[in-house]
């Protein structure tokens, strides 16, 4: 294992206060994550579309997210993390308010695409900010806490959303807009810019509104570290260097396949349950079970999982996903769905936060936003491709073929993760050396500035 994977246990006070405000803002957003999980039900039951047609409309949102995930990462490196995140959330609010006010599948698809163009930038930018704020030895824990916020919100929100959907789908959009607005207020007041410039000489050369380097203890790599980063796999600056990083892009491609399976839990799963006669509130109960299990087990198991390499944890976790998804092929009762969801939830717990922290450690400091943007595209592309593929398989071959096929894909992903692990471990060791040089330079500059 790399040194960062054998670090001592991270305490709450090891993570900066700014991280916890960012955590709070994300928690609020995910409490209100109502719309996408219920969109397929809305389109089929209220608009009267087929499963494949609903998948195409939801895929329009995914297309928007693909573009904004990548653009958000690039803009975060260029103009600052805070500006991109605030803009993403404010513009998302406007579109969420508008969607219930229009009619017609084409117009809804267009607005969902616009919503994706604004909303998709937030995830990669938040992950970039966590990478900025937290030292490598504490990042694994930080991303576990970050993922815990996501699932704590998901445990609270979908249960209420299921009952709201039975009354009015418009409430889902407007309530989510209100909570995103609350999150924006927290960010505006409590979270400063985390992308800091390292001056060549001591001086007040920080972006307006940025926190002091001594508080954040992070900067993009100074010139002396950039050479080391390029030696660790980079080829010049910009997005081209990220796309040319074969170790990272292989990892991203494998995670894309996993994400295609994962998105079925919020796209085709509610359709299958509806076809079996389950009310929408039953799907809400499953999402709540998923969130509650992650909330209860995520942190207690994080310390246990930290004893093993992240690559081993991911491979085993995705194998569990295969088992849980495969069981859904035989599920008909709510109790059986509870069992299946509980199993693939264990897989989710061990895969997503580990993968995000690996991305942060593979990312060269000067291109951290771009790396997270490209990684975000793996899930965004899955949001575009997954609903279409899932809907087509469901329409033409049925639920059993859908879940058994998804289970088989998960097993392939687990094997690929194991096979490619050594190259990632070598790369992480090299990049962390460059990151340490960057942070040492930042501390030196901050010390000189105070004197």
TrEMBL record:
CDD domains, alphabetized: MFS_MdtH_MDR_like
Membrane topology category: Multi-pass membrane protein
Location within or outside the cell: Cell membrane
Annotated InterPro entries: MFS, MFS_dom, MFS_trans_sf, MFS_Transporters, Sugar_transporter_CS
Ranges where the Major facilitator superfamily (MFS) profile domain occurs: 18-425
Transmembrane segments: 20-39, 51-71, 91-118, 145-165, 281-300, 312-344, 401-419
Gene3D superfamilies (UniProt xref): MFS general substrate transporter like domains
Annotated SUPFAM superfamilies: MFS general substrate transporter (SSF103473)
Keyword Cell membrane appears in the UniProt entry: yes
Keyword Transmembrane on entry: yes
Domain of life per record: Bacteria
Keywords: Cell membrane, Membrane, Transmembrane, Transmembrane helix, Transport
One Pfam family here: MFS_1
Region (Disordered): 202-234
PANTHER family associated with the record: MULTIDRUG RESISTANCE PROTEIN MDTH, RESISTANCE PROTEIN MDTM, PUTATIVE-RELATED-RELATED
Name of the molecule in the record: MFS transporter
